[in-house]
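Retry 2 of 3 after timeout on previous attempt. Resubmitting C-alpha coordinates to design endpoint.
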Protein backbone atom coordinates (compact mmCIF):
# COMPACT_ATOMS: atom_id res chain seq x y z
CA UNK A 1 0.00 0.00 0.00
CA UNK A 2 1.23 3.55 -0.70
CA UNK A 3 0.85 6.37 1.84
CA UNK A 4 1.44 10.10 1.49
CA UNK A 5 1.16 12.80 4.11
CA UNK A 6 2.83 15.56 6.09
CA UNK A 7 6.41 14.31 5.63
CA UNK A 8 6.64 15.48 1.97
CA UNK A 9 7.18 11.96 0.66
CA UNK A 10 5.30 8.85 -0.49
CA UNK A 11 5.98 5.61 1.38
CA UNK A 12 5.38 1.98 0.49
CA UNK A 13 4.01 -0.06 3.39
CA UNK A 14 2.96 -3.70 3.80
CA UNK A 15 0.33 -4.63 6.38
CA UNK A 16 2.04 -6.06 9.45
CA UNK A 17 5.34 -4.41 8.56
CA UNK A 18 7.27 -3.37 11.66
CA UNK A 19 10.35 -1.69 10.19
CA UNK A 20 10.50 1.94 9.00
CA UNK A 21 8.47 2.43 5.77
CA UNK A 22 10.57 3.07 2.67
CA UNK A 23 10.13 6.34 0.76
CA UNK A 24 9.49 5.67 -2.94
CA UNK A 25 9.07 9.31 -4.00
CA UNK A 26 10.30 12.56 -2.47
CA UNK A 27 12.67 13.07 0.45
CA UNK A 28 11.13 12.62 3.93
CA UNK A 29 10.79 15.93 5.82
CA UNK A 30 12.45 17.91 3.00
CA UNK A 31 9.92 19.82 0.84
CA UNK A 32 10.99 20.83 -2.64
CA UNK A 33 10.34 20.59 -6.38
CA UNK A 34 11.85 18.47 -9.17
CA UNK A 35 12.16 14.96 -7.74
CA UNK A 36 11.13 16.29 -4.31
CA UNK A 37 7.54 16.78 -3.18
CA UNK A 38 5.66 19.42 -1.20
CA UNK A 39 2.50 18.42 0.67
CA UNK A 40 1.73 15.33 -1.46
CA UNK A 41 -1.88 14.13 -1.28
CA UNK A 42 -3.49 11.37 -3.39
CA UNK A 43 -1.44 8.47 -4.77
CA UNK A 44 -2.15 5.91 -7.50
CA UNK A 45 -0.09 3.12 -9.07
CA UNK A 46 -0.42 1.65 -12.58
CA UNK A 47 0.29 -1.85 -13.84
CA UNK A 48 3.88 -0.90 -14.73
CA UNK A 49 4.64 0.13 -11.15
CA UNK A 50 4.66 3.86 -11.89
CA UNK A 51 3.57 6.01 -8.95
CA UNK A 52 1.25 8.97 -9.60
CA UNK A 53 1.23 11.69 -6.93
CA UNK A 54 -0.98 14.74 -6.46
CA UNK A 55 1.89 17.08 -5.49
CA UNK A 56 -0.34 19.78 -4.04
CA UNK A 57 2.29 22.24 -2.84
CA UNK A 58 4.03 22.24 -6.22
CA UNK A 59 0.75 22.52 -8.20
CA UNK A 60 1.32 19.47 -10.35
CA UNK A 61 0.52 15.82 -10.90
CA UNK A 62 3.88 14.03 -10.92
CA UNK A 63 4.76 10.49 -12.01
CA UNK A 64 7.70 8.42 -10.81
CA UNK A 65 9.01 5.18 -12.29
CA UNK A 66 9.36 2.00 -10.18
CA UNK A 67 12.92 3.02 -9.24
CA UNK A 68 11.88 6.53 -8.14
CA UNK A 69 12.89 8.36 -11.33
CA UNK A 70 10.76 11.35 -12.34
CA UNK A 71 9.15 10.39 -15.68
CA UNK A 72 6.35 12.94 -16.23
CA UNK A 73 4.44 15.84 -14.72
CA UNK A 74 1.27 17.77 -15.53
CA UNK A 75 0.65 21.27 -14.13
CA UNK A 76 -2.51 21.28 -11.97
CA UNK A 77 -3.47 24.02 -9.51
CA UNK A 78 -3.91 22.55 -6.01
CA UNK A 79 -4.30 18.83 -6.93
CA UNK A 80 -5.75 16.66 -4.18
CA UNK A 81 -6.66 13.16 -5.37
CA UNK A 82 -5.79 11.05 -8.43
CA UNK A 83 -7.17 7.78 -9.80
CA UNK A 84 -6.39 5.90 -13.02
CA UNK A 85 -8.95 4.48 -15.43
CA UNK A 86 -8.16 0.76 -15.87
CA UNK A 87 -6.80 -0.38 -19.22
CA UNK A 88 -6.34 3.16 -20.51
CA UNK A 89 -4.13 6.25 -20.21
CA UNK A 90 -6.90 8.35 -18.66
CA UNK A 91 -6.27 10.10 -15.34
CA UNK A 92 -8.87 11.66 -13.05
CA UNK A 93 -7.81 14.41 -10.63
CA UNK A 94 -9.69 16.46 -8.04
CA UNK A 95 -8.14 19.89 -7.61
CA UNK A 96 -8.82 23.34 -6.20
CA UNK A 97 -8.65 25.41 -3.04
CA UNK A 98 -11.93 25.46 -1.15
CA UNK A 99 -14.39 24.20 -3.74
CA UNK A 100 -12.95 21.43 -5.86
CA UNK A 101 -13.19 20.50 -9.53
CA UNK A 102 -13.02 17.08 -11.15
CA UNK A 103 -10.55 17.00 -14.07
CA UNK A 104 -9.90 14.38 -16.73
CA UNK A 105 -6.55 14.07 -18.53
CA UNK A 106 -6.28 11.84 -21.59
CA UNK A 107 -2.67 10.85 -20.91
CA UNK A 108 0.60 12.07 -19.48
CA UNK A 109 1.47 14.09 -22.58
CA UNK A 110 -1.83 16.01 -22.62
CA UNK A 111 -1.55 19.09 -20.40
CA UNK A 112 -5.08 20.44 -20.89
CA UNK A 113 -8.06 18.70 -19.23
CA UNK A 114 -10.33 16.83 -21.63
CA UNK A 115 -13.30 17.32 -19.28
CA UNK A 116 -14.08 19.30 -16.10
CA UNK A 117 -16.88 19.35 -13.55
CA UNK A 118 -17.34 21.49 -10.42
CA UNK A 119 -17.73 19.59 -7.14
CA UNK A 120 -19.61 20.97 -4.14
CA UNK A 121 -16.95 19.64 -1.80
CA UNK A 122 -13.80 20.94 -0.08
CA UNK A 123 -12.36 17.53 0.92
CA UNK A 124 -13.24 14.94 -1.73
CA UNK A 125 -12.51 11.25 -1.55
CA UNK A 126 -12.39 9.53 -4.94
CA UNK A 127 -12.26 5.94 -6.18
CA UNK A 128 -13.18 4.14 -9.39
CA UNK A 129 -15.53 1.23 -9.97
CA UNK A 130 -13.01 -0.89 -11.87
CA UNK A 131 -15.35 -3.90 -12.06
CA UNK A 132 -17.93 -2.12 -14.21
CA UNK A 133 -17.92 -2.65 -17.98
CA UNK A 134 -17.55 1.13 -18.38
CA UNK A 135 -15.88 2.19 -15.09
CA UNK A 136 -17.59 4.99 -13.17
CA UNK A 137 -16.05 7.32 -10.61
CA UNK A 138 -17.16 7.27 -6.96
CA UNK A 139 -16.74 10.60 -5.13
CA UNK A 140 -17.51 11.07 -1.43
CA UNK A 141 -18.45 14.14 0.64
CA UNK A 142 -20.24 15.94 -2.21
CA UNK A 143 -22.71 18.50 -0.87
CA UNK A 144 -26.29 17.88 -2.00
CA UNK A 145 -29.06 20.50 -2.53
CA UNK A 146 -30.64 19.68 0.84
CA UNK A 147 -27.37 20.37 2.68
CA UNK A 148 -26.37 16.76 3.34
CA UNK A 149 -23.18 15.23 1.98
CA UNK A 150 -23.30 12.09 -0.13
CA UNK A 151 -21.25 9.58 -2.06
CA UNK A 152 -22.08 10.04 -5.75
CA UNK A 153 -21.37 8.13 -8.96
CA UNK A 154 -20.02 10.06 -11.95
CA UNK A 155 -19.90 8.89 -15.58
CA UNK A 156 -17.15 9.87 -18.01
CA UNK A 157 -18.83 10.82 -21.31
CA UNK A 158 -15.67 11.73 -23.21
CA UNK A 159 -15.61 15.53 -23.21
CA UNK A 160 -17.89 15.92 -20.17
CA UNK A 161 -18.92 14.28 -16.90
CA UNK A 162 -22.46 13.29 -15.90
CA UNK A 163 -23.72 12.63 -12.38
CA UNK A 164 -25.49 9.26 -12.10
CA UNK A 165 -26.93 9.78 -8.64
CA UNK A 166 -26.12 8.86 -5.05
CA UNK A 167 -24.44 5.69 -3.86
CA UNK A 168 -24.89 6.48 -0.16
CA UNK A 169 -25.40 9.30 2.31
CA UNK A 170 -22.45 10.59 4.35
CA UNK A 171 -24.04 10.78 7.76
CA UNK A 172 -22.72 11.81 10.21
CA UNK A 173 -20.54 14.31 8.27
CA UNK A 174 -17.42 12.54 7.09
CA UNK A 175 -14.35 14.53 6.05
CA UNK A 176 -11.59 11.95 5.62
CA UNK A 177 -7.86 12.44 5.27
CA UNK A 178 -6.78 9.82 2.75
CA UNK A 179 -4.02 7.45 3.87
CA UNK A 180 -3.85 5.02 0.99
CA UNK A 181 -5.73 2.60 -1.24
CA UNK A 182 -5.79 -1.14 -1.85
CA UNK A 183 -6.61 -1.11 -5.57
CA UNK A 184 -6.75 -4.89 -5.87
CA UNK A 185 -9.72 -4.97 -3.48
CA UNK A 186 -11.01 -1.41 -4.11
CA UNK A 187 -10.59 -0.42 -0.44
CA UNK A 188 -9.77 3.16 0.62
CA UNK A 189 -8.14 3.74 4.02
CA UNK A 190 -8.55 7.11 5.77
CA UNK A 191 -8.67 9.02 9.02
CA UNK A 192 -12.37 9.62 9.72
CA UNK A 193 -11.77 13.33 10.31
CA UNK A 194 -8.83 15.37 9.15
CA UNK A 195 -6.84 16.63 12.12
CA UNK A 196 -8.68 14.45 14.65
CA UNK A 197 -6.94 11.43 16.13
CA UNK A 198 -8.56 8.19 17.18
CA UNK A 199 -9.57 5.36 14.88
CA UNK A 200 -9.44 4.78 11.14
CA UNK A 201 -11.97 4.07 8.42
CA UNK A 202 -12.07 1.67 5.49
CA UNK A 203 -14.35 2.53 2.57
CA UNK A 204 -15.55 0.20 -0.16
CA UNK A 205 -14.77 1.98 -3.44
CA UNK A 206 -17.56 0.05 -5.20
CA UNK A 207 -20.41 0.77 -2.82
CA UNK A 208 -19.27 3.65 -0.59
CA UNK A 209 -19.85 1.50 2.54
CA UNK A 210 -17.69 2.68 5.45
CA UNK A 211 -16.51 0.70 8.46
CA UNK A 212 -14.07 1.21 11.32
CA UNK A 213 -10.77 -0.63 11.12
CA UNK A 214 -7.88 -1.07 13.51
CA UNK A 215 -4.44 -0.18 12.08
CA UNK A 216 -1.61 -0.77 14.59
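Retry 2 succeeded. Sequence:
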Amino acid sequence: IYISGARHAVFQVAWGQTNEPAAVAGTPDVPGSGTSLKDPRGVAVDGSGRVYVADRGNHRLVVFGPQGKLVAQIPVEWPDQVVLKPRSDVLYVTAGFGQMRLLKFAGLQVLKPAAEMPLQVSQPLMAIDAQAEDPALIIANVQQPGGDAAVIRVEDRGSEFRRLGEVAKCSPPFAPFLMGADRANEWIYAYPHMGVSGGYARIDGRTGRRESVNIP
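Attempt log closed. The radius of gyration is 16 Å.
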